[in-house]
Request: fold
Amino acid sequence: INKDKEFNVKLIKDKDNNMMNMFFYKHYPDADSSKDSVSSTMATLRHQKHYQHIMNSQHVHSSHKNNLKILYQTGSSESDLPLCTPNAVCSKLDLYQEPWLERQCRCPGKPCSNSLSASDGHTVSDKTRHFKICEPVRKLPKCRLFRDVTWTLISSEDSSSTEQILHCRCPRGAIAYLVSRQVFRRTEDSLALAFSFACSPASTLKCQRKEPCRLFSVKKRPHAIEEVNTNSLCQCGPHRYCPSHHHESVGVVAGKVYDEESVRTYSGYCLPRKSTGDEVEASYEEKN
Reply:
């Protein structure tokens, strides 16, 4: 690492990191990562105004196509989007509830797939999201657990958008988690951050009494869109299940609110499975 980069990292570590943390969790709030390590990395980008611009810039423009709500990460139309680099995510499709799509870049010479299906040959799935790329996904190798980087998320100091590059596909049932953070200089006057994610098997730990089985991070976006990230924490015992939606009437408890980012968290607790058609009564206990 060169002295100039060391100086930049050290210089910014003393600044307030709250907004930087929220910027990271906006994109991957369900990533398995240390808050301290995220804070030290996010502190390397210098201007809080820049982060607020990034957070707000994606909330302005939308259109509708085949009843699918479409947001634009940059500008307000296809012509405003940058050209995709190789294996960059051109669209992010969210299927948590009513489907919506965020356009991120333009495929050279052809449109980016907006199919709701994961079988269109251009999709890598991650929980309730589909990442669409211009190239056929069959050309992406299968990731080795814990060893290979499945994707990299890049944010530049002088840009209002982020870029997600896919490198390989996680095995079926695996989840992505943060493994490294790198600060680099894209231009003489601009720093950038690269977050790398690898694949891990889903947790097989059994939930303890009063322990939440799933966390939800819900961000309000324009046009009545909710961007929801989920993180499964443990497995419920026999004859029990974990709520899959933060709007479920039982088994879900509202948590902390981050007003500046329009984010609210929720915790899901294990419930008994239905044995009849009667309404299930929650047997979990809320934390005091």
User: Anything to note?
Assistant: Confidence is low (pLDDT under 50) at residues 1-63, 276-288. The chain has two domains: 3-201, 203-288.
